[in-house]
Design brief:
With about 130 residues, the protein is α/β, with parallel strands linked by helices. It is about 45% helix and about 20% strand. The two termini are about 15 Å apart. Keywords: DNA-binding, Phosphoprotein, Transcription, Transcription regulation, Two-component regulatory system.
């Protein structure tokens, strides 16, 4: 079981991610915007962050830069984006994103990615028994 922080301004996406990840046995915390996400990150110290790119106020790139500014072992960050163009991807890679997932996405694709990343990092994740 891992603690996953979901930062997205879209309530439907937050609920979908929460439902899918909790059904898979993870603890999910949500944040409604970038500033809320940074506060939650500091308090929770999550194992994984799922971050929307386009949000009002502090966007996903700003959140990512702040997360990458923390000391210690870097937390894997997955960015969700409806703008899967090469400029957006290049900006994310430069800021230190680990993974991209274009919207719309399937629950299976999301879970495969999360399990693949966390399977080696968090005891009990990705184990079949």
């Amino acid at each position: 079981m891992a603690t996953i922080l979901v930062v997205d301004d879209d309530p439907a996406i937050r609920q979908l991610l929460t439902d899918v990840l909790e059904m898979d046995g993870h603890v999910v915390a949500v944040a409604v915007d970038g500033n809320d996400g940074l506060r939650a990150y500091d308090v929770l110290q999550p194992d994984f962050v799922i971050l929307d790119v386009m949000m009002p106020g502090l966007d996903g790139y700003g959140v990512l830069r702040s997360i990458r500014g923390h000391e210690g072992d870097p937390v894997p960050v997955l960015m969700l984006t409806a703008a899967a163009d090469s400029d957006s991807a290049a900006r994310g890679w430069a800021d230190g994103v680990d993974y991209y997932l274009a919207k719309p996405f399937t629950a299976d694709t999301l879970l495969d990615l999360v399990e693949g990343v966390l399977g080696d990092r968090v005891p009990g994740v990705g184990d079949d028994g």
